[in-house]
Amino acid sequence: MAEETKNEEVVKADETTKTEETTKTEEAKENKSSDTPAAMSDEDLKAVVAVKERLQFFFSDANIRQDIFIRKHLMSSDDKCVPVDALLRFNTIKKHSEKSSVLIHAAKELSDSLVVDEEKMTITRVVPFTKEMMDENIPRSLYIKNLPVNESSGRYDVRVDEIRALFDKYGDVAIVKLKYAGGPPRNNRNHGHYGPGNGNARRNIALATALIEFHKQEDLDKAAEATLTIKGGEKVDPKDKIKLPETETRKSEIELEVVLLSEHIAMRNEERSKRETKKRSALEEKPAVEGKEIPKFKFDWKPGCVIKVRGLPENCDREAMLSAIGKGLDISSDDVKARKIYVDYSRGQTDGAIRFPEQSDSVAVVVKKIERWRTDDFRCKSRRRLNPRRRGREEVLGRLH
């Protein structure tokens, strides 16, 4: 009887263990399937459709050519992928859903073009984007000019969807890209489709131009035939004039200028080449012009016209030196000045120079006498400047140069 009871307990224990394992397996399946479209709410399913459209655009060739953020991740990062959390910060995705499960399922529905790594939580393209693909849009693109810009804000007074609507009738438009130039840093917060940005980011200046790329070459040809206003560098009358209607902010109808992007690039390169050629020519001509304008000076240096004097007393001055020179030449200080003998000296210095206008025997005479003179011969005549302790103890050296 006791053995039967033990056997029953073992059987019950086994059944309990199996039941627990089954429950855990079912819970795991439920957790795994809770992220499937069948388990999603109607709101999430609706978000998947919208996010799918955004992913299709963000990872398209047309957008990657213009989108530095996406291009950097796909071409320069180690794994060549875009993190899911980075995509969830895009405003145009975030407004539909902030759930990673929604974004991942949207990407999975684009399996022909996108690859999802759920372990790393990244998304990449099936066909890698390469550097060679950067210019493939040029033959299929138009360049639009004369777009309206608000004078006070400096922003475009036209929406991308307005421009797209003007060209949709000619074919499938891949992208409309408003063109900007970098300006000085802005102080306000910058909100792009990447979410809040750095307040010190450089301000974008609207150039009043846009790029329109078509998916197919035949669509571009159709649009070009009807809308071009510039051909071969000359203005022409288009079959269809592309005009923006008057609005509250646009006080009048605006006619746009249309040119092939390939022609615009060629004209821009030609203008740049002309500027560089003109600049090089100016630099080459500049030395010749400067050579004619800058006069050449010839220094006629004559030896024996300068006497270098060293060891002058602290209270020496220019008048004392002129007087000493006059004494050496047996002439007055006024006569020294009349002969244009110049004393190069500033009070407080211990060295000075006596400069004669021409070579003369008197120069050698003065040198010989200076060598015999003592410091008192160069002292200021004012008694209050004399230092009796040093009088007669220092010698003045004169050298001819």
Automatic annotation (TrEMBL):
Q: A Gene Ontology biological process annotation?
A: RNA processing
Domain HTH La-type RNA-binding: residue ranges: 41-133
Q: Where is this region: Disordered?
A: 1-39
Q: Name one Pfam family in it.
A: La
Q: Where is the RRM domain?
A: 140-249
Task: Say where the protein is mainly found.
Answer: nucleus
Q: Where in the cell is it found?
A: Nucleus
Any keyword Nucleus? yes
One GO cellular component assignment for this chain's record is: ribonucleoprotein complex
Q: Where is the composition biased (Basic and acidic residues)?
A: 1-33
Query: Does RNA-binding count among this protein's keywords?
Result: yes
Name of the featured protein? HTH La-type RNA-binding domain-containing protein
Annotated keywords: Nucleus, RNA-binding
Bilayer-crossing residues are none
Molecular function GO terms recorded: mRNA binding
